[in-house]
Amino acid sequence: VSETQKFPVIAISGERSMTAGKKYSLRFCYHIEMIATTLLDYARSQKLNRLGVIKAELAYMDGLLDYMQKNLREGESLEVLDSYQTQDSTFKNSIAKLKTKQFDALAVFLVGGQISQFYKEMKQMNVLIPTIGTDFYDSMKLVNDAQGTMTGSVFAGPSVEPAFVERYVKVYGNDAQVAWAANSYEFALLTG
């Protein structure tokens, strides 16, 4: 729409392609490749070569997974067990599948409350497997909601100044998606 109407649009998105080659669209944010590369580097450092994936149906997660798949090395694999709509809230079928798979780790590419629910269900079903996650994990509220079940999970996300997090929590009551908020705030400061 921005291109056909010649109407400038500013978007926050980790997906670079949405503004590539466009004159009236501006994207700001860290990009998917940063998160994917960090997760792959971590997996390699821990010799986690066979990764299972449980993901939310979200363009961001699709882009992340696509980049990771394109950058696998010999002997590495990614297998998507299941995809969920963002409103889904039970994951027991996927967790049961983990008992028959031989993954070195599981990439939990879910969103918001899905993440803590997934970990609680995994604990209820006595499934133990190393897990990695995305910048959606970057929330103490989410960690607290998981009631200790996320212990040991590793995620990739941009750093956010502690002073910004403190102000954000004071205003909004939690730190959910604080990295995206910090990106937006910094962009607003740059553009004046």
Task: Name the features.
192 residues; alpha/beta; two-stranded parallel sheet; five-stranded parallel β-sheet
Structure description:
Helices cover 42% and strands 17% of the residues. It is of the alpha/beta class and 192 residues long. Strands 4-3-5-6-7 form a 5-stranded parallel sheet, sandwiched between helices. The protein has a two-stranded parallel ribbon with strand order 1-2. α2 crosses α3. The longest helix has 14 residues, at 32-45. The protein starts with a helix and ends with a helix. The mean pLDDT is 90.
The SSE string, one letter per element, is: HEEHEHEHEHEHEHH
Q: Assembly type of the shown chains? A: single chain
Q: For the terminal residues, how far apart are their CA atoms?
A: 25 Å
Low-confidence stretches: none
As laid out across the biggest beta sheet, the strand order is: 4-3-5-6-7
- Considering DSSP H and I runs of 4 or more, what fraction of the residues is helical? 40-55%
What's a concise summary of this model?
The chain is α/β, with parallel strands linked by helices and 192 residues long. It contains 8 helices and 7 strands, in the order H-E-E-H-E-H-E-H-E-H-E-H-E-H-H.
Architecture blueprint of SSEs:
Elements: H1 2-5, E1 9-12, E2 25-28, H2 32-45, E3 50-56, H3 59-70, E4 77-84, H4 92-98, E5 105-109, H5 112-124, E6 131-133, H6 140-145, E7 154-155, H7 162-172, H8 178-191
Parallel strand pairs: 1-2, 3-4, 3-5, 5-6, 6-7
Helix pairs in contact: 2-3
